[in-house]
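Give me structure tokens for this 340-residue protein.
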Amino acid sequence: MRATVRDVAHRANVSPKTVSNVVNGTFPVSATTRRRVEHAMAELDYVPNLAARGLRNGHSGLIALALPNLGTAYSAEMAHHLVAAATRRGLSVQIEETAGGAERERQLLSRARAQLIDGMVLNPVLLETTAVQRGVSLPPVVLIGEVDQPVADHVWIDNPAAAQEMTALLVAQGHRRIAVVGKMESETSRLRLQGYLAALAEAGLERDVGLEIETNDYTSAGGAAALRSFLAHSDPPEAIFCFTDSLALGVLNALWSAGLRVPDDVSVVGYDNVAEVQYSVPPLTTLHFDRGELAEAALTLLMARIADPDRPIQNLTVPHSVAHRASTRRRPVERAASRI
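Here you go.
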């Protein structure tokens, strides 16, 4: 027979309420009493009945995090910070991968509506096809990333402003033929391309669509393959703005394979500041933002939405900055002038 709260209480010589307080953390319990209860739980192999608890209070204590690609360093870091933020709130996290697909998003939202989870933090990819749309019955959900729908709370980085800042850095260093690498159909690339083009226009530089290098694979392998294909028929650009750090790591490898030096021949910048890029060769200049702050903001909005489904929609912007490293440099005056 499965041990009950009453069995634990009897073994620890405390009340069932005290056992509940130890399990749920709802009220302070002395260290001595806590140790006695925990020892009794271990002896009896007691496992809290979360399903029954959920039936009593209307919540399961479980939320979901749905990301497009769990294979990227960004996703791993985002999941790490969100799980930490959830743990501090006494929540468990179910981590899911959508592959950017609306059908998978719909399945997960349906699970939330069925109250198998209390709510969801979702990172959609495509604005037009995301399952979060007007007229759709939504459970508590917070969007993170670039897709912003007016029917759901949203936490993001100001992508156009951040991309404009990264491109302006390269322009200020004397670069004129600045390429970009990304998945152009995604909302991420659309917004970052918008910032890139704004920086070019501000500098009086014309758009060259031949320098907009597209890949459908947002991994390092995808970045390397895209640049290798570009270099097979085009001269190297003076600088490359990669729309993610994963792409940038692949681009660094492709440039090395082609015998091009970074930053002497080509400057490279990324976006996200994942931990690995501090140790790339050379270390990558990239767009930085605090993923812990983003996770905290998302969880704060989600808990507020769970508590009050009718509260006004909120949009929060997490600050960003440039992490300056060795993958960029000012072009020599004579070389920069020859391109103008």
